[in-house]
Amino acid sequence: MIGEGAEQMIRRDLPFHSVEESDDGRWYIIDGVRFMSVTTALNALDKRGLVPWAGGLAAELSFLELPTLVAASRKKPCERTWNRCKHDDNETCERCPCRVCRLCVQKWVGDRHKRETARRSDEGVRVHDVAEWWSYHGEIKDHDADIALYIKSFGQFVDDYGITPEDVLLAEAILVNREVGAAGQTDGIIRFHAERSEAAAKLISRILAARGERVSWRKAQKLKLTVDLIIDYKSRENDEAKFYPENALQLAGYRHFPVIRVKNSDVEIPMLPVDGGLVIQLRPDGYSTRLVVCDRFTYEHGFLPALRTYQWVTEHGAAAVSSHTFVLPETLAARERQAAKDRAGAEQSPAEAA
Ligand SMILES: [Zn+2]
Ligand SMILES: [Zn+2]
Questions:
Q1: Distance CA 44, CA 328 (A)
Q2: Cα separation of 226 and 144, whole Å?
Q3: Strand 33-37 vs strand 182-186: parallel, antiparallel, or unpaired?
Q4: What separation in angstroms does the CA of 37 have from each of 5, 66, 184, 187, 269?
Q5: Distance 54 CA to ligand 1 centre (A)
Q6: Helices 102-110 and 47-64, packing angle to 10 deg
Q7: Contact of 97 with 68, CB cutoff 8 Å
Q8: Which ligand has the nearest atom to the CA of 91?
Q9: Rounded CA gap, 169 and 272, in Å?
Q10: Which of 117, 208, 247, 349 has a CA positioned 20 to 30 A from the CA of residue 101?
Q11: Spatial separation of the C-alpha atoms in residues 210 and 261, rounded to whole Å
Q12: For the whole prediction, is pTM greater than 0.85?
């Protein structure tokens, strides 16, 4: 969503398909051109913490499902454990993994972190949908019971900061940087007004202090100061606030991407300037906000190197260690002879057919 008139340019009911996500979610395809997804690139940084988490989940499931494991230990492998069926999850065929033999159960236990990640990511998407709907309509739309506590925390956040839908200058939109070949989806930009609440005034006062301007929060209220912040909602299952350096990197990236591609449209406008970045963590027990450093330095020294490393791994990593990369000259010559023969054959074949 774009405020102040630009919205009139956008017919949200038109079925544009000019932005798509690749099946694996690693790329945005914008007007037929592939852009690396920012979250995918930054997730690669985050792997270390996930290893003990994934191991713990598998270990816990082993105890929860002890009878299943004991039964499976006596069953011979079905030899179908690694088959990937094309049909829907609720259908079965004779190629399906048996799910009861030792190897099948072992894989099921080991894959628990994948199911957990998918479940949480699905929760996150639905929480974002409710927040986005609110910024268009000013009301909380119907939602599933499993995300109700996160939505309650979201409502608390907008109440505490006195935010109204008109303060949402930009809701979910794709930000594009064609120069570095990357794109990402921002949760938007919110204008905070000091006079609306103590929390908003203190937020503004902190940002000004970081810039060297000392304005008490009460004075910020008197002066009716405002700041525009690029925001990111994170849903977190644990009842303990935790922020990661990647949160700052992500906002540094989005803040400095030059182009906003308005969602469900082919409208592009320049990125709006902002005063900083704010992560809003929504948890079942409440929420926390955290201002993060997402300045030019963070963009150039943190975000861009991380993105480029991931791009290199994706596009050149396999070739860098492949036995096919360094080839004997004899092999190259033989390949060229074969290619020439194939070309000649292709040119002749119409004549042979005649
Ligand atoms: Zn099957
Ligand atoms: Zn099996």
A1: 35
A2: 35
A3: parallel
A4: 29, 40, 6, 15, 20
A5: 26
A6: 130
A7: no
A8: 1
A9: 9
A10: 117
A11: 31
A12: no
Name 177's bridge partners: 182
Query: What is the DSSP secondary structure assignment for residue 3, as one 8-state letter?
Result: -
Do 262 and 269 meet the contact criterion of CB atoms below 8 Å apart? Answer: yes
Mean pLDDT value across the chain = 89
pLDDT for res 39: 86
What is the percentage of the chain residues whose pLDDT exceeds 90?
A: 69
> Per-residue pLDDT for 10 more than 80?
no
Report how far ligand 2's centroid is from the alpha carbon of 346 (Å): 47
State in Å: Cα 106 to ligand 2 middle.
9
What pLDDT is recorded for position 352? 54
Extract the tokens encoding 85: 């069926």
Residue 159 has pLDDT above 90, yes or no: yes
33, β-bridge pairs: 30
- Residue 247: name the closest of 281, 283, 271, 275 by CA: 281
What span, in angstroms and rounded, lies between the C-alpha atoms of 81 and 96? 8
- How far apart, in Å, are the Cα atoms of 47 and each of 41, 42, 324? 11, 10, 29
Give residue 119 CA to ligand 1 midpoint distance, Å. Answer: 22
Q: What's the confidence (pLDDT) of residue 5?
A: 40
Taking residue 175's Cβ as centre, other Cβ atoms within 10 Å add up to: 22
Total residue length of the chain: 354
Of the ranges 23-27, 206-210, 226-230, 277-281, which one carries the lowest mean pLDDT score? 23-27
Cα–Cα distance for residue pair 162/257, rounded to 1 Å? 28
pLDDT tens figures, 186-233 = 999 999 999 999 999 999 999 999 999 999 999 999 999 999 999 999
In tens, the pLDDT along 51-73 reads 898 999 999 999 999 999 999 99
- Region of residue 79 (left: phi > 0; alpha: psi -120 to 50; beta: else): left
CA gap 96, 83 in Å, rounded: 7
Cα 105 to averaged position of ligand 2 atoms, centre (Å): 7
3-state secondary structure of 196: helix
Residue 21: its pLDDT value, please?
Answer: 82
